[in-house]
Write a structure and sequence with these properties.
The protein is α/β, with parallel strands linked by helices and about 400 residues long. The chain has helices at about 10-15, 45-50, 65-80, 90-100, 115-125, 140-145, 170-180, 190-195, 230-240, 250-260, 260-280, 300-305, 320-330, 360-365, 380-394, and strands at about 80-85, 105-110, 130-135, 150-155, 180-185, 205-210, 220-225, 285-290, 310-315, 335, 345-350, 370-375. The chain has 2 domains: about 10-260, Type I PLP-dependent aspartate aminotransferase-like (Major domain) (Aspartate Aminotransferase, domain 2); about 260-394, Aspartate Aminotransferase, domain 1 (Alpha-Beta Complex), CATH 3.90.1150. It has a 7-stranded mixed sheet, sandwiched between helices. Helix 13 packs across helix 15 (about 380-394). It starts with 10 loop residues before the first helix and ends with a helix. The model has no long low-confidence stretch (mean pLDDT about 95). The structure holds pyridoxal-5'-phosphate.
Length: about 400
């Protein structure tokens, strides 16, 4: 039976309805197919599937029906022709690198990216002869200056973590294409509900589904979205060969997550903006970062590029590390953990955790103040989140 899909549907509808081909059991919820291999009707059918002459399942490292529903649904949400799912967000980024880069190539990346992505680039890509340069996300002239004749990829995460700086996706895409390069956007923070990089000209979107796509901190997963050639052939080819495939159970959890993604992302953003405004008015708080605030230096770009500001708020308290730790330790409800994209609000001290490996000079350059606190605002009632932070602030 044909999958239900109407390109005119709103995102909220696509997120609930796309991809499920109901089986002859008439199930309403999407089925989970926990099977490693698939059976053929005859030797001739097996031969036809293996040769690629006839499409169909062979082995779950290649394709799995539950995983495919997730891929089709996410592709529809991002407005891409093709998505491939991976075992984690890092597997998605690795597959992009292995699929599109070779020895002697050069990659330009924004500096403030997920810590493990930096390790992937620095420790492993370099070992295979790929050069990497880092630039400040918002500085277009720096991006342009970093491009070399052998540059193949521009990689950016926007908004950045934890300071919520923005990269202008449309401008970065033009820059990439003017230099025969591709633009890759890590869209884990916004999800397609708040930002659709492909529509702004990006070539590829990568996701950590572990974050907001799941939304309740349960499963690891990731995905790459783009066109059929890059994603469906080159990146998929890497994945089916190297093996970080998504489990059907995790795909099913993400499908349930996607059904509420539209509602959740708006609620995360509303809660975060209200909390940011409250923090901005607090006498013990020096600065607050959230793209929805009028005081955000790129507020206009955020309004043009994103549907809302997202769930991450960071702020600097007066009194440095001691004061920041006091605020964190005074909380009773917020979870002290670096994870994000959960219904549960989390709180971290970047200078001693996610950015703890940087030396003082690097921290200063990256804007990681000792008084900086990051909150990934969840879906609890705003009053309760505020009351928990007020304990240490007042
Ligand atoms: C978490 C995260 C990743 C890595 O994803 P995993 O699922 O943990 O492998 C990549 N990029 C961003 C922005 C993330 O937040």
């Amino acid at each position: 039976m044909a999958s239900s899909f109407d390109p005119d549907w709103d995102l909220a509808t696509l997120a609930i309805r796309t991809g499920h081909r109901r089986t002859n059991e008439g199930e309403h919820a999407e089925p989970i197919f926990p099977t490693s291999s698939f059976v053929f009707g005859s030797a001739a059918e097996a031969a036809a599937r293996f040769s690629g002459e006839v499409a169909g399942n062979i082995y779950s490292r290649f394709t799995n029906p539950t995983v495919r529903i997730f891929e089709e649904r996410l592709a529809a949400l991002e407005g891409g022709a093709c998505a491939v799912a991976t075992a984690s967000g890092m597997a998605a980024i690795m597959a992009v690198c292995l699929g599109l880069l070779k020895q002697g190539d050069h990659l330009v990346s924004s500096r403030a990216i997920f810590g493990t992505t930096t390790i992937l680039f620095e420790r492993y890509l370099r070992r295979f002869g790929v050069e990497v340069s880092y630039v400040p996300l918002a500085d277009l002239a720096a991006w342009e200056a970093a491009i070399r004749p052998n540059t193949r990829l521009l990689f950016a995460e926007t908004p950045s973590n934890p300071l919520t700086e923005l990269g202008d996706i449309r401008a970065l895409a033009s820059l990439a294409h003017a230099h025969d390069s591709l633009l890759v956007i890590d869209n884990a923070f916004c999800t397609p509900v708040l930002q659709r990089p492909l529509a702004l000209g990006a070539d590829l979107v990568v996701h950590s589904a572990t974050k907001y796509l799941d939304g309740q901190g349960r499963c690891m997963g990731g995905a790459v979205v783009g066109d059929r050639k890059l994603v469906g052939e080159e990146i998929y080819g890497v994945l089916r060969t190297t093996g970080p495939s998504l489990s059907p159970f995790n795909a099913w959890v993400f499908l349930k997550g996607l059904e509420t993604l539209d509602l959740r992302m708006r609620a995360h953003s509303d809660n975060a903006l209200a909390l940011a405004r409250w923090l901005e008015a607090h006498p013990r708080v020096r600065t607050v970062h959230h793209p929805g605030l009028e005081s955000h230096p790129q507020h206009a770009l955020a309004a043009a590029q994103q549907r809302a500001g997202g769930g991450i708020v960071s702020f600097v308290v007066e009194g440095g590390r001691e004061a920041a730790w006091r605020v964190i330790d005074a909380t009773r409800m917020l979870s002290i953990t670096a994870n994000l994209g959960d219904a549960k609000t989390t709180i971290t001290h970047p200078a001693t955790t996610t950015h703890g490996r940087l030396n003082d000079e690097q921290k200063a350059e990256a804007g990681i103040d000792e008084g900086l606190i990051r909150v990934a605002v969840g879906l609890e009632h705003l009053d309760d989140i505020q009351a928990d932070l007020a304990r240490g602030l007042d």
